[in-house]
Every structure is written in structure tokens, then in C-alpha cells.
Specification:
Oligomer: single chain
Number of domains: 2
Bound molecules: guanosine-5'-triphosphate, magnesium ion
Largest sheet: 7 strands, mixed
Radius of gyration: 32 Å
Strand order of the largest sheet: 4-5-6-3-7-8-9
CATH architecture of the largest domain: 3-Layer(aba) Sandwich
Structural class: alpha/beta
Distance between the termini: 59 Å
Order of helices and strands: EEHHEHEHEEHHEHHEHEHEE
Length: about 350
């Protein structure tokens, strides 16, 4: 903290001056009264202790804005109405691009009936969509691979035009390899809390892979195996919804022979899932989307408004009923109830 010396006749505000030590005026004044520094207090600056310097440097501590881990995501779900969305698909099927694409669209305005109303994970969203934005000047959109390990959650608060109260969307993101490992070891899915708690399980089918006659059967098998593993692990409940999402639709134009064949194959996957699992979910819907299209074959964010509306619809999640317990006070005074007379409360 700065300290001031008491002003005195032999004082000088210039610490370099030797007048206080009986020397000459450093400014060259013979008559010291003419010197603007003479007789004024010198400012003594104390050396700042290292720990104080660190505290000053840190400034105000702001909450982080990275993706949330499960405990923080669950705390958020307890605080406000939330739709939890698990996004499942193999490596490079477009999971992170889908999450980034929703955020990106909301930055430009309404997405269907929904508007952005806040987020506690802005850094994570920015990172998810930065590379794929046209502004990044890449020839082809690019997305960093999600690291294997625990699921992380992206958080958005949204308001709907017809209802001004906020509802949160939590998107669970996990590396594609982790989900694929459950096909050979379904028990692994027991340690994926986002599956059991999801309002909407979202399974992705990679449009680019559906173009290839060999790879498209692998896409179908991955969807079959994921559902089988999640049911075997006991992670699914009949109140949950299922979204089957055809990603990268810009790569499968409906007006080309290959594109039409890819879309037809996707429709056959949807039909099979409906037949096998229709009674095990409260709803099954399909959505063709282009979260991060290459070129002009599809507008950026195509299909996302319909998907967002499906995700945000109030979930049919069972609500635990809380029985009202009547507490009867022992003393008569405690049993008095407020009585409203002409707007005033009387005991
Ligand atoms: N053509 C096209 N490519 C897309 C689209 N969406 C995503 N991609 C590309 O698909 C690739 C994989 O996307 P990601 O979002 O990283 O896939 P992921 O499923 O998160 O992959 P992992 O994190 O490894 O599991 C990236 O190169 C994206 O640019 C799209 O709508 N159209
Ligand atoms: Mg990813």
C-alpha cells in the first residue's frame, strides 16, 4: 500500500533529489522556494508481496464456462426445468457438430419458437462450433475429436415465444468410441448416466456413410447394436423418446441417385426401429439435418429447428409425488390460520 511522508521544510517530492540529505536541488534551483517539488511529501511505494500480487492479478473470480461434468449437470437439473438430451453415434457421425450447430443458429436469432436465454458453458459451445464456422476460413468444416472418458454436458437456457419461462437444454456429449464399446460389453452402458436420465435418446446415422453400399449396413448395425446394448444394460425406460437423426444431409442430395438411395436406406432403418422398439419408447421420430454443411448443398442448420422442438417438448418423465403431511401444532396458538377479510389477513 502506498504511504505518504509528512510534508516538511527539508522534504522533496522527487526521490532522486539530495536536498533532504543536505545536498543540492536536483532541478538546479538556488532558491529552493522556486522548485515545484521542494517541501512536498514524497510517495513511498512499498514492494508488493508476491501473494498479494497474485491476488491482484487474479481479480474477480468468474464461474467457469466449460462443459459440465455429471454432478454439476445433475445440480442444474434440480434447479430448473430441463430437457436432457443424450447424443449417441460412432466416431465422426456429427455429435459435437450437432451441439455446436444448435448454439450457432441461436446466436443468429430464433430457432423455430425458441430463443437463446443464457448458458453456463459458453466456452465449450464456442470451441464446438468455432472450427466449423465459415469464418474459420477452412476449405472443409472441421471438428476436433471428442476425447474418450466421462460424458460432458453443454447447457443452454431457452425461452419459447408462447411461454416466457425458461427451460434448460442439457446436451450430453461423449466420444463415439465409448458408445461403440458397449456393443461388445453392454455392462459398460451402466456407467453412462446420461442414457438412463435422458428425456430424448438421439441416435445418429452418418449420411456420408449411407452413400456407400458397403458402409450403410454398418450404420444400420451400429444403431441396432446400440439399442440392444442400452436395453440389455437396463438403461432405457418406456417414458423416454427416441430421435433418429440423419446427419450431413448436404452429402446426400435427394435429387441424385446415390443420395436418394441413401435416404431410402435411412427410412428403412427408421421403419425397422419403429417395428422392433415402437412400444419401448413414448415416441420415435426421424430428422434429416445438416449442422455443418460443406458448400451450398444445404443451408447451415437445416432440420435443426424441428429437432430442437422435439427435444424441448415437456418430457413425459415420471414425477415423484410428494404427499402433503399435515402437522398439528400442540398449542392452540399454533393452530390459528390466517383469515382473509377485505384483502387484509387476520388471525
Ligand atoms: N458435410 C457435412 N459434414 C459434417 C456435418 N456435420 C459435421 N460434419 C463433419 O463431420 C466430421 C465429424 O464431426 P464431429 O461433430 O466431430 O463428430 P463426432 O460424432 O463428435 O465425433 P467424435 O467426437 O470423434 O465421436 C467433421 O469433420 C465435421 O466437420 C454436416 O452437416 N455436413
Ligand atoms: Mg465429438
Amino acid at each position: 500500500m502506498p504511504l505518504y511522508q509528512e510534508p516538511g521544510p527539508q522534504q522533496c517530492a522527487n526521490p532522486e533529489c539530495s536536498v533532504p540529505r543536505g545536498g543540492r536541488c536536483i532541478e538546479g534551483f538556488e532558491d529552493l522556494k522556486g522548485c515545484p517539488h521542494y517541501g512536498k511529501s514524497a510517495l513511498i511505494v512499498e514492494a508488493v508481496k508476491p501473494e498479494v500480487a497474485v491476488a491482484v492479478h487474479r481479480g474477480v473470480q468468474l464461474p467457469g464456462a466449460e462443459a459440465l461434468y455429471t454432478a454439476a449437470a445433475q445440480a442444474l437439473m434440480r434447479q430448473r426445468p430441463t430437457s436432457l438430451i443424450a447424443i449417441v453415434g460412432p466416431h465422426k457421425s456429427g455429435k459435437t457438430s450437432l451441439i455446436g450447430g444448435i448454439y450457432d443458429l441461436l446466436q443468429r436469432g430464433m430457432v423455430g419458437e425458441y430463443a437463446f436465454a443464457g448458458s453456463s458453458t459458453l466456452h465449450a459451445f464456442e470451441r464446438a462450433c468455432h472450427d466449423s464456422r465459415l469464418a474459420s476460413n477452412r476449405d472443409r468444416p472441421h471438428q476436433e475429436r471428442t476425447q474418450t472418458g466421462d460424458a460432458t454436458y453443454f447447457h443452454l437456457d431457452l425461452v419459447r415465444t408462447t411461454c416466457r419461462t425458461k427451460r434448460a437444454a442439457l446436451f450430453a456429449n461423449r466420444a463415439g468410441e465409448d458408445y461403440m464399446e458397449t456393443h461388445s460389453d453392454p455392462d459398460l452402458a451402466r456407467s453412462f448416466p446420461e442414457l438412463r436420465k435422458a428425456d430424448t435418446l438421439t441416435l445418429l446415422a452418418d449420411g456420408e456413410k449411407l452413400l456407400d453400399a458397403g458402409e450403410r449396413h454398418q450404420v444400420m448395425n451400429e444403431i441396432r447394436d446400440s439399442l440392444r446394448a442400452f436395453f440389455e444394460a437396463g438403461q432405457m425406460s418406456d417414458w423416454q423418446r427416441l430421435a433418429l437423426v440423419l446427419t450431413k444431409v448436404d452429402a446426400v442430395p435427394a435429387d441424385t441417385e446415390e443420395g436418394a438411395a441413401a435416404r431410402e436406406f435411412f427410412d428403412s432403418i427408421v421403419a425397422e426401429v419403429r417395428e422392433l422398439h415402437g412400444a419401448r419408447f413414448s415416441a420415435i421420430e426421424s430428422f434429416p439435418v445438416a449442422a455443418s454443411p460443406r458448400g451450398a448443398a444445404a443451408p447451415r442448420g437445416e432440420g435443426l429447428a424441428k429437432l430442437l422442438a422435439y427435444w424441448m417438448a415437456a418430457p413425459p418423465r415420471p414425477v415423484t409425488a410428494v404427499a402433503e403431511v399435515a402437522v398439528v401444532a400442540e398449542r392452540s396458538f399454533g393452530r390459528l390460520r390466517p383469515l382473509v377479510v377485505g384483502g387484509a389477513h387476520e388471525a
